[in-house]
Here is the input.
Amino acid sequence: MRRLIALAFLAATALSTAHAARPIRFADTPPNAGALVLPLGSADELARRGSMLDPATRDAVARALAAADFRYRANSKLSLRGLGPWSQILIVGTEGDGDPAVRLQEIGGTAAQETAREDGPVTIVAPDGIGGPAAAAQIGVGAYLGGYRFDRYRSADPERPRRAGEEAPLTILTPQAREAEAEWQRGGAALAEAVLFARDLATEPANILYPETFVDRTREAFRGVANVRIEALDVAAMERMGMNAILAVGRGSERPPRMLIVEYRGAEGAPVVLAGKGITFDSGGISLKPGNGMWAMKGDMGGAAAVVGAVLSLARSRAPVNVVAIAALAENMPGGGATRPGDVVRAMNGRTIEIINTDAEGRLVLADAVALAEQRFRPAAIVDVATLTGAVSTALGDEYAGLFSRSDALADQLIAAGRTSGEPLWRLPLHDNYAEDMESRVADIQNVVEGGGPGAGLGAHFIGSFVDRTPWAHLDIAGVDVRNSGTPIVPEGMAGFGIRLLDRFVRDFRAVPSAGDR
Here is the structure.
């Protein structure tokens, strides 16, 4: 008898999502209808793994592969229709290099995207010999990520009138279905949903998502999750604590800033703190941005979404870690009370800042966030994440996020996590001369250097100057937070970059020397 194992993906602690996705299931016997996805690394694999195809259909698939000169390379694909009982047979190539988990996720993502318009069920046959049950779970992660669509504000498609919750399932066929479900429940499901949570946040328009509603969405997402404490500092609380840098950014908006703190304690010891830039809309303030493309600045809170999403993934999977997310949330607008170029403000740690350009606001909110992290939590490490500079995308394009750190040991761990998670980092320099470049005539530091220069490095130096002894790293994700063309795992649009990376980094983290010990 067919054994089908369905994961109740969104249970009592379900998130209120704007996205639609097929439910993920696992089975150990093949279906007999719908779309079938066969990942293959060679022609010989079709003979070994095509047992669910009748001989005539298998021969037809073999002829089609030969006629198309299919090379079986990773992410190559061939769609066939009208064969046997299947609405579609999709062949996906698997040969290639790279981390096996990422390759498996790409199989799932490719399958989800290429079968997106199928009304019926979709079945993916898990590849042989690549990780057992864990491999099937990774395919599920990729399918959930690759099949993402943001549907909240779209009218119903008259050609596809399905409603949310009516999506046919995507089933991963594996002889170890029960074990694969256990792997999925142990972490894959939480990771995939956390990434989609972050994509939803970054895609929402700024009239819907602003500092207060970001906090509300976060509380909803963590409802019922054990060992979590959430605190949101309002303007009065931040004034008492001397957080004048973030307050300066928010002064021009009618929507007040918030400093959101999410603590998850799944282990003892000093936590890792993840601090995220959360500018829910960035007009540039008084230093107003050009109008073209300004609409995209609703996503300038991708760093905050990433750090909260990473903690959501770790907490929902009950990871044995101690981690804190700090999301520095503000809206940067040119209202009558807005901060002016030339103003001087004092950050939480007492350092004074001359604001040369109000469009360099992300580093201001992070100055207070990392100072709070160090003073309150005495962490083992601080990693801040921000869509900080256009300069980093000029240097690295959309292939790498920029990494800055004065701790080689911390940087090495982040690079390793990026490699295995499929979210790669490229380390860029922090020269000692940056301190001289950013000297102010009237304050301790200025927030930009006029006339250009190494903008990504100068921004990183500014944030790092508000950390005293704690090992610290800065991730500039401005080039990778949004995709203008999709990949198997990241469809076109907001990427939710950083959650897979940070989840892996925190799970594998090993203590590194403090700044004073190097």
Summary: The two ends are 63 Å apart (CA to CA). The longest strand covers residues 272-282. The mean pLDDT is 92.
